[in-house]
Amino acid sequence: MNNRRKLVIALGAGALASPLASFAQQPQRTRRIGALINLAEADQESKIQVAAFVRGLQELGWNVGRDVQIDYRWTEGNADRVRKYAAELVALAPDVILTTGGSHVGPLQQATRTVPIVFVQTADPVGGGFVESLARPGGNTTGFTVFEFDIGAKWLELLKELAPRVKRVAVLRDPANPSGTGLMGAIQAVAPSFGMEVSPPVGLRDTGEIERGVAAFARVENGGLIVTPASFAIVHRDFIVKLAALHRLPTMYPFRVFANNGGLLSYGPDVVDQYWRAAGYVNRILRGENPAVLAVQRSTKLDLVINLKTAKALGLAVPQALLLRAVEVIQ
Q1: In 3D, which of 236, 11, 281, 7 has the Cα closest to residue 119?
Q2: Which of helix, strand or coil describes residue 171?
Q3: Whole-model pTM?
Q4: Under CATH, which number does the domain 3-147+270-300 receive?
Q5: Domain-by-domain residue ranges, the chain?
Q6: Is the pLDDT score of 263 beyond 50?
Q7: Which of 20, 129, 135, 225 has the greatest number of C-beta atoms within 10 Å?
């Protein structure tokens, strides 16, 4: 039995008091799932993530469209849409809501403290006030963290290893995202040990702010960028990747999708896998378990992806040791 199938069984086993076949034979009302997604509906990455979630439900015995209905809302990283669609989904009285990131969890919790919420891609849910603890969330919300703050130090280390000439780094972050402060602190703490200085952060609120901030930073030589997780950054990843290339700035990204789109390198969790695993928690809640006692799960596997084509365009020779640690090298 492969590890992926074992995970499906492990996620579903706690709630299955009888075989799936027996469950399917009993008359059941159609269950309702709300999904507040941070990307655009037409975004290819969004389609892949949602497909992983649906596949996970199907593997656990749910027939989407027959015994479960999913109501989607696509926010495209827009804060006004997040608040509007959070309220809309809660008004539909779903059995459970799936959502992405702290910028979406907060508005959902403001809209409801009773409808169960399962999150993915969320950093520091305790610090954000979304759960009481990782082991015992204690409310209507649980899910999957994206990473610990010390990953910020790893981002800086990997960027320096690939681009040793980098002496200054600017961090792109959303000031409204509570995880941004912790990540910024982790980067600042280790920068001197790498002979680097951290410039004031560049805001991730609109493309104009990003363009102005990066252009001003690029006026001084030997600079590099670190992009922290934010819905706006993921939605506008093509713009950010092209801007980094325009100014010839070696840039570290938090997710594989950036490297796939031409970013130099990324280091972070498998987001698609988180959506698939989230189906297990949604399944357990639909079958009667309480999110208050479903422990928040950490990401245990972080993937390094290197875009060799982009490295060559920047005149960077990728160390062999770094290539061997990468799970994927994009030619």
Answers
A1: 281
A2: strand
A3: 0.86
A4: 3.40.50.2300
A5: 3-147+270-300, 151-268+303-330
A6: yes
A7: 225
The full DSSP string for 219-282 is TSSSEEEEEPP-HHHHHTHHHHHHHHHHTT--EEESSHHHHHTT-SEEEEE-HHHHHHHHHHHH
Stronger pLDDT, 299 or 214, i.e. the higher one: 214
Give residue-wise pLDDT tens across range 186-207. Answer: 999 999 999 999 999 999 989 9
No. of H helices and E strands in the chain?
Answer: 14, 13
Token pair 């910020």: residue: 152
Per-residue pLDDT at 242:
98
Output the six-digit token pair for 229: 């997780």
Which amino acid, one-letter code, is at 272? V
Q: What are 278-317's pLDDT values in tens digits? A: 999 999 999 999 999 999 999 878 999 999 999 999 999 9
Q: What is the mean pLDDT of the chain?
A: 90
Q: What are the backbone angles phi and psi of residue 227, rounded to the nearest 5°? A: -100, 120
Superfamily of chain region 151-268+303-330: Response regulator (3.40.50.2300)
Could you say which DSSP state residue 92 is in? T
Q: For residue 180, what are the CA distances in angstroms to 4, 67, 186, 232, 321?
A: 32, 40, 10, 13, 30
DSSP one-letter code for 119: E
CA distance 211 to 205: 11
The alpha carbon dihedral of 166, 270, 48, 35 has a sign of negative
Q: d(Cα 135, Cα 293) in Å, to the nearest integer?
A: 8
